[in-house]
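Re: beginner question about structure tokens

> Can someone show what the tokenized structure looks like for a real chain? I only ever see the sequence side.

Sure, here's an example I had lying around. Input first:
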Amino acid sequence: MKKMLMTMALCGLAMAGSAQKNMSQMSAKGQDPRGGVTRTRVQQVKLVGEVSSTMIANNEIVKFTVDDIVNRITRDQDFLKNIEEATKFRFESAGQALNVLASHGWEVTSVYTTKGRQGDEIHYVMSCNVAMTPPYSPWLDPTYERGGKK
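And the corresponding structure tokens:
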């Protein structure tokens, strides 16, 4: 019995020494065995717009809208130009609007339906990834007034 206990103790000691050697090799390679902290930097931010579709007198009215604060958030002039043109354009159908916006990098995030005066209104919440910009805080901007006007 003593021989068996002595053998198991030696095996346990050998395994502990081997594990300690492996741990020191791991930390020497830069891998933290305690689960170190890794940091990632966000390179893109998601901006949101909306396509709304309603039927008035058997004509489908489709509008693309983006909040005015997007103009202050991003500095990408091509993106801002595309937004301005898309919000002014009269789309023939919701499908056309979704396909055109998809070609510019917009994705449908969610869809919801509301009851309006003229019937059902379908709203497509769209999002688009743009290059990361510094955070914008309207409460710190002295020129910002409630309602988005200067």
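Each token stands for a local structural state, so reading them left to right follows the chain. Residues 2-28 form the longest helix (27 residues).
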